[in-house]
Amino acid sequence: MITPPSMGNLARDYLLALSNHADLDE
């Protein structure tokens, strides 16, 4: 499956956001 760089960045930002949110919850 080929994913455009833009989609890769969005997914990466999304995962980073989840990680940051988890850190805040902790």
Jot down its keywords.
26 residues, mainly alpha, 1 helix
Total of helices: 1
Major sheet: size, sense and barrel closure? none
Helix content: over 70%
Q: Hey, roughly how much beta strand do the residues contain?
A: under 5%
Supply Rg.
11 Å
User: In one word, what is the shape?
Assistant: rod-shaped
- Uncertain runs are none
Q: Mean pLDDT, rounded to whole units? A: 78
SS-derived structural category: mainly alpha
What does this entry look like structurally?
There is one protein chain. The chain contains one helix and no strands. The N and C termini lie far apart (35 Å). By secondary structure, it is mainly alpha-helical.
Give the gist of this structure:
This protein has one helix and no strands. The protein is an all-alpha fold and 26 residues long.
List the helices and strands and how they pair.
Elements: H1 5-25
